[in-house]
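Hello,

Our lab assistant flagged a job as stuck in the queue for most of the afternoon. It eventually completed. Since we weren't sure the result was trustworthy after the delay, we are filing this so someone can double-check. Below is the sequence as submitted and the structure that was eventually returned. Let us know if re-running is recommended.
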Amino acid sequence: MSALQLFGTDLWIMDGDPVRMFTIPFSTRMTIVRLESGKLWIHSPVAPTPNRIDALKRLGPVSFIIAPNRIHSLGVNPFKVKFPNAEVWVSPNFPESHKDIEADSVFGSDTNPEWGDEIEYHIFAGSFYLDEVVFFHKKSRTLIVTDIIQKHVTAKDPWFWRQVKHLAGVLGKEGGVSLDLKASFTDRSLAGKSKEKVLSWDFDRLVISHGYCVNKNAKSIVENCLSWI
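-- returned structure --
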């Protein structure tokens, strides 16, 4: 059972079950924002177990399900089954990668969601592989990212995988952008513009899907993680 954890004003996180990608173990995390309307905005949903669903229902109605990049798909359809009236928003390359998942809206430079005044978004550009959409929740001053920054908790993996993640540059609180993702950013000019956009937001907290989150002074940490651009 994973409990809701209040992380900022009207923002909660909930840890999910571990998953594997290319055999590498990953922890998972869902982010929940309660909008001014009372509706819930769900980022990168985890498996909707009865306990997790009950916890969400006590907060409000699940109205928006966010798939922030083409990789994070596992919880989308299960959540849509539980909350059929929720809108599914997906990253630009998500529909091509997951033709079995029906999206209501695809993030683009000109899309204007009804929650846009409360949560800004930006598609981090420059990578031929990762189409990550990053978010800024104004009320809690929180930056929400998925895979572009990772800080895997050291105690949760066997020795071998800790070494792999250390070599990739994503282990522990000193983690950041993995070496393989860095290599995928072939257009550094576009990446630089995205970095400037993200750092222009007035955030102080950082939520990530894989590993340690940051509850204060997050901007300097994010700036350091993106200093290679």
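-- support follow-up --
The delay was a queue issue, not a problem with the job. The result is valid. The first helix runs from residue 50 to 59. The first strand starts at residue 5 and ends at 8.
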